[in-house]
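Practice problem: predict the structure.
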Amino acid sequence: MRLLTCGVCLLFCGVLLAAEKKKPTGPVRGGNDVLDIVANVLVDKEAVTQALGRDPGLALILVNVKVIPKGDSMVQIYRDDFTLLLSRDGQKSQPLEPGQIAGRGGIVVSTQGVAGSGGVSNGPSFGIPGMGRMGGGGVGNAAGTTEAKTTVQADTGEPDNPLLQVLKEKVLPEKETNDPDSGLLYFLFDGKPPKVKDLTLIYKFHGGKVILDFKP
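Answer:
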């Protein structure tokens, strides 16, 4: 009877841990005199698939962002003003465009690192033909910095990926506004999927900088 009770307890704890792992992170908020930003991040594959309505086929990270201008401030929203930092290894990712993820032809991203001593080291080169690039901005670390170089492969002539329209509909729109606006940003890192606690969103624009740390 005691063994049975222990087994039930272990099973219950396992279910709780699995549920906690898949639970979306609560929103974090930051801002300055010009605007506020509210964001939450999804890294679990099942949560990402549910948010998009279909499996993206790669380890996308979704950041749901709401930009809230203050007063009469007009804000020009550019997706490239956002950077997602992975503190685990210093990688920095810029948002991917829908066509880079699910457009025709492949985009290959190669990274070239500049060592702290002035030398040059080559980083990874990766991509998905017919699906778009894997990877965003450069990778940075204490020893130096790296830059990403993208090259576009020839159109494969394949039909449009059904995922493309979904990504276009849900992406954060680029526009000038003084009204709140929201949408998704798509990121990708090299290596194993990150943990939420290791991610930081940085928004750098003409009105300053906003940093949102996703640590619990």
